[in-house]
Amino acid sequence: MELSNDVRCMDEALRFAREAMSISSPNPRVGCVIVSAEGQVLGAGSTQPAGQAHAEVMALREAQSRGVSVVGATAYVTLEPCAHFGRTGPCCDALIRAGIGRVVAAVSDPNPLVAGQGFSRLRAAGVEVVVGLRAAEARELNIGFFSRMVRQRPWVRLKIAASLNGVSALDNGLSQWITSEAARSDGHAWRARACAILSGVGTVLADDPRLTVRLPGSGRQPHVVVLDSRLRTPSSAKLFATGREHYIYTSPADAGDSRRKLEERGATVIPSPRAEHGLDLQAVLSDLARRGVNELHVEAGRSVNGGFIQSGLADELLVYLAPTLLGSGYGMADLGVMDSLAQGKALQFRSIDCLGPDLRIVARIAGSDDF
């Protein structure tokens, strides 16, 4: 009976965690539900923007505002309560002080500053701790955070809009709009959950995109990342129109007037090592991880897409297919010449959905989540 109740309560905590989907970055998306021995919900909450309260504290505050005691209650939390001082204090200590008697957590925190220490402190204080309920769902909700902590690089998602025969732009560069308003709106929701949006300088020069989230009520705007080995990004580009971080990765030798103009617009110009066909993408991702980027949303052309795939650094494809056939043009990704079918990149379909007239496919590079 208790297990059934635990599942129901953890599912509710996961629902609260999803409410933090687009606001908690760079912190993980966490939900907490505090329940009495009689099954009454005393308080619930989700992680707030960085520097503000975590889910456990939000749940405790709600219980306090309702004038109810949480002594002996069970806290259902989707990630191990933190045990270190960051922008806020340790959540495990807050639960202990409040008199929580039992903690049911979905998954351990991969952050080396926590990594079991939260559970240890709870148990040392006499709190019963249960770990593992809905672990897969909780980890998937924070796949980018786990990637940054375990692999020291963000989770990389490539967003592509194309015709049914795989054309993402015509030979003259026209691509707006291949897919419908419904697909474009959904794409903004995926932008919103990302910590940063990456594009190549070719796309910036051709389309002058804003790379913003344009949804009703959207608050936090993801950072902007531009791969620009020769520093050709115009200081007048529309992507500079909003107050957020702008990271422009370039070759070490590039500097001078172009750099000065970009820095005057508030951009951070970052020298990065080169690889055979451009910037070293692994170095870029490692640097973004150090800057707190969990999920990286890539909206670029076939060259950049191909670079991420061929280097083994792409994790997931978000593909919108329009019910139309187009003539010659640009493909989804430049993967070079292959001599056999076995050289292709194996994918695993995660979901296939209709959005208006279009099809949305989420496909994961086989093995990309094995960490």
Supply the key terms.
371 residues, alpha/beta, nine-stranded mixed sheet, five-stranded mixed sheet, 18 strands, 29% helix
Describe this structure in words.
- The structure is a single chain.
- The chain is of the alpha/beta class and 371 residues long.
- It contains eleven helices and 18 strands.
- It has a nine-stranded mixed beta sheet, sandwiched between helices. Strands 2-1-3-4-5 form a five-stranded mixed beta sheet, sandwiched between helices.
- The protein starts with a helix and ends in a 6-residue tail after the last strand.
Topology:
Elements lengths: L1 H17 L12 E5 L5 E6 L8 H11 L8 E4 L13 H8 L3 E4 L11 H8 L3 E4 L3 H7 L1 H9 L3 E9 L5 E2 L10 H13 L2 E5 H7 L15 E5 L18 E5 L5 H9 L3 E4 L2 E2 L2 E2 L1 H10 L4 E4 L3 H9 L5 E7 L6 E2 L16 E9 L2 E8 L6
Parallel strand pairs: 3-4, 4-5, 6-14, 6-15, 8-9, 8-14, 9-10, 10-11
Antiparallel strand pairs: 1-2, 1-3, 7-16, 12-13, 15-18, 17-18
* Lateral arrangement of strands in the main beta sheet: 11-10-9-8-14-6-15-18-17
Q: Which outline best applies?
A: globular
Q: Structural class per helix/strand content? A: alpha/beta
Rg from alpha-carbon coordinates: 23 Å
Number of strands: 18
Distance between the termini: 34 Å
What's this entry about, in short?
Helix content is 29%, strand content 23%. By secondary structure, it is of the alpha/beta class. The strands form four sheets. A nine-stranded mixed sheet has the order 11-10-9-8-14-6-15-18-17, with helices on both faces.
